[in-house]
Design brief:
Two copies of one chain form a homodimer. Chain A has about 450 residues and is of the alpha/beta class. Chain A has twelve helices and 25 strands.
């Protein structure tokens, strides 16, 4: 019986395991994971810290028992230390301290990503955390409980930084959010990031954008107690933020050490290089999820866009191929959405600066309309920013912001579908979208923006 | 100066007028309408009856002043009575009783549709209404106020019927909804219509489906007062519903008398036949909106799908072409959404029976998932029904139902975009849709349904 070994039990690994068993029920599948939290929704961690999710275990997409129910052998707290690609074998460190050697016919590396600790002094001080794994969340939660911390500084105002600012506020902490870019959520254009800044400020978060952090320090205390010795976060601007807890949220990098031991080629931003079938450069070894490159559907080239939704899709493709199937990963558009209090901001495709980097000539239109007819109660202003290729009008990117009841996430999905299928803004205008006064307008706000963009393009 | 005359000042007419002035600012544009409510949102009328919209005038998409601000001459309370196509002239009945003859170079007929009064006895009794125009809504409102009516029967459980059931309930009336089909909203498959039935029943509406109405009667009252003489609505089943007010909501038919006076060809279901440029069979005369055929984007043939969103789009195309432009209407997919209390149900593309009528062989999958990760509070069950062509997997139709905060309308828009671009369910599965735990799942419920459908298709 052929043996598929999967290293990593998060979204990509679990998706791969389940799909492989589905495609070939005769396949022996072993999935190793370093902790005890398979298929755990790391995107949910801020909601646990914030108290919106009380049951930690509920954040697993599937329980260990459910995964084993698919016929997957689950080795928890097992760490793969090296791959012998010639022998098709894996060295594994077991929880009892022993080492075992696992033979495989196919191997899927799904080792994920780790939080970046920026190269500044003080990131190893007590009270400094990252938020990437289940263990990180439990550690922060315990620290908050044990120390009675009343303030937090967050280094990095991306999605996790903003979500954690809300989470800490919900726990009653005073929160300072520090972002080097001009506005939070730097993977949105600043016009949309400003909405997030306003949402946070309105809830009492102190947002300091445009300033980089250069050190974290802590005054020594003769008593030896660190509980009442706050940390100082020093900025380029000369300002410092004082906080009991510091969260580093400056992004992630792919975990590739294991894959490198097999000699696989690394690609974009140090992620494991893969084909669209999710094959690495070494025969029999696949990679999927946050440790691997993704395929950018619009740019038609590799990119590094570590996202949960992509990890699930890549895992499924890798699992199918490792089980003898033949499927290509169709690619990502960097579609992302984040909720910050009642604000939702989302993007798909390229930002203006990414359009320029790609050497494309583009027109961008900003538009504000309503989610539904304003005569019906509760209409919400929706901010839309569309970017299209000059001349052809091909939709290249969309960014949308508005209240969480304004169907922002699904509007970005309409744009993602339009971009994936190569629609122009004129073709978007022509889509037969749904309308009823409490839920829409005869021309959806996306179509209004598309019409606006054509007007700008034709005048230039 | 060339003169464009538009007959009808609702959505199609107004969209045409504005677009024509935009394309050719030198064009003289005259728009006639029979009442005093140009560009009035007839889709909003139930919310006025139900009291959710207090300001009647707010339901106009644009005010007369705003329309005139675009340089459109607005002739309100003017009724066109005949077209002399050879002379390119229009006979018009003015509000002062006089008749005038308007010369035109181009004419756009946008006379809309009228509510069908079924061919049964009693539809002309006092207390029997339809709900199509601003005047209809004002008349019903006045009647309810004057008579102190406490009960209503609605004949027809389509979108308007369901919305009016909610509206009457909001005004405190006892409501009986009568629908000949097995479930309300017969332009959904009964599986989705059943959700609407449950939503209405849960709010105290008596839903009687599967029974046709054969007569409406009223006992004569010697006192001459009709206020306390209820109407009786008699059904095929032998049952009768007693109500102070009866609303006929069995659909609409195109208003074509004027166009027929010009000799235009009628098409599907008696609607004015038009090309994709919205030209009628008579030179110089265009038609748009609910009086005209629409182009079915998937079936690639004419259909009659009178909807506000389509009227806006057709009007814009007709206006552009009448002003010398050249644009084709890309077509409809019958995308529709309705809110019934907190339930939203929506469709796009073909129902199962329409697939059969079109001679296509299809697979349908029913799926229930969640709008967002269930571990985050407030997750909502979403019902999805996807229909795809057997073999190719091409998406042919989608129906979705769920709570109004579950982004149902925009999910159907994703499907409408997918159908318009010819995606298969497998390609839908591969879309890079947005995910964050409070607003989605790693595989959106649409993609879960698409995966499910492939599983069914491959097993058969």
């Amino acid at each position: 019986m052929a043996h598929l070994v999967i290293v990593g039990g998060s979204d990509a690994g679990t998706s791969a395991a389940l799909r492989a068993r589905e495609v070939d029920p005769g396949l022996e599948v072993t999935m190793l994971l370093a902790d005890r939290y398979p298929n755990f929704s790391v995107c949910g961690l801020p909601y646990y810290i914030g108290g919106e999710v009380a049951d930690f275990a509920s954040m697993a997409h599937r329980s260990p028992t459910a995964i084993e129910g698919f016929g997957v052998r689950l080795l928890m707290e097992h760490t793969a230390t090296a791959i012998d690609a010639a022998a098709r074998a894996l060295d594994v460190h077991a929880p009892d301290g022993s080492t075992l050697r696992l033979r495989y016919d196919r191997l899927i590396v799904a080792t994920g990503a780790q939080a970046i600790r920026p190269s500044i002094p003080g990131t190893d001080l007590p009270g400094v955390f990252v938020m990437r794994s289940a263990a990180d969340a439990l550690a922060v939660d315990e620290y908050l409980r044990d120390t009675g911390a009343t303030s937090a500084a967050i280094v990095g105002g991306g999605y996790i930084g903003c979500e954690m600012a809300e989470a800490f506020r919900r726990r009653g902490l005073r929160v300072t959010l520090l972002e080097a870019a001009p506005a939070p959520i730097p993977n949105l254009d600043p016009e949309l990031g400003a909405l997030a800044a306003a949402a946070l400020t309105g809830e009492g978060v102190e947002v300091r954008a445009g300033t980089a952090v250069r050190a974290i320090t802590q005054r020594r205390d003769d008593s030896g107690s660190r509980h009442h010795v706050p940390l100082q976060v020093h900025c380029d601007s000369g300002e410092a933020a004082t906080a009991d807890v510091v969260l580093l949220a400056v992004g992630v990098r792919p975990v590739t050490t294991l894959a490198e031991s097999a000699g696989v080629r690394l690609g974009v931003r140090g992620a494991i290089g893969v084909t669209r079938r999710l094959e690495t450069s070494v025969a029999g070894i696949y990679a999927a999820g946050d440790c691997a490159e993704t395929w950018h559907r619009m740019l038609q080239r590799p990119a590094y866009l570590p996202l949960g939704s992509t990890a699930h899709k890549q895992g499924r493709v890798a699992g199918e191929n490792a089980a003898g199937g033949d499927r290509e990963f169709e690619g990502s558009l960097g579609t992302q959405v984040v909720k910050v209090y009642d604000l939702v901001v989302a993007r798909t495709g390229l930002l203006e600066r990414e359009v320029r980097e790609a050497g494309l000539d583009a027109v961008t239109a900003d538009w504000q309309g309503h989610d539904h007819k304003p005569y019906y109660p509760g209409a919400i202003a929706v901010r839309v920013r569309l970017t299209a290729e000059r001349g052809t009008g091909r939709l290249l990117g969309a960014q949308i912001g508005g209240h969480r009841h304004a169907e922002i996430a699904r509007r970005i999905d309409v744009c993602a579908t339009a971009i994936a299928t190569g629609l122009s803004v004129r073709q978007l205008e022509d889509m037969d979208l749904s309308y009823t006064p409490p839920l829409g307008t005869p021309w959806d706000v996306l179509q209004q923006a598309a019409i606006r963009l054509q007007g700008i393009g034709s005048r230039e």
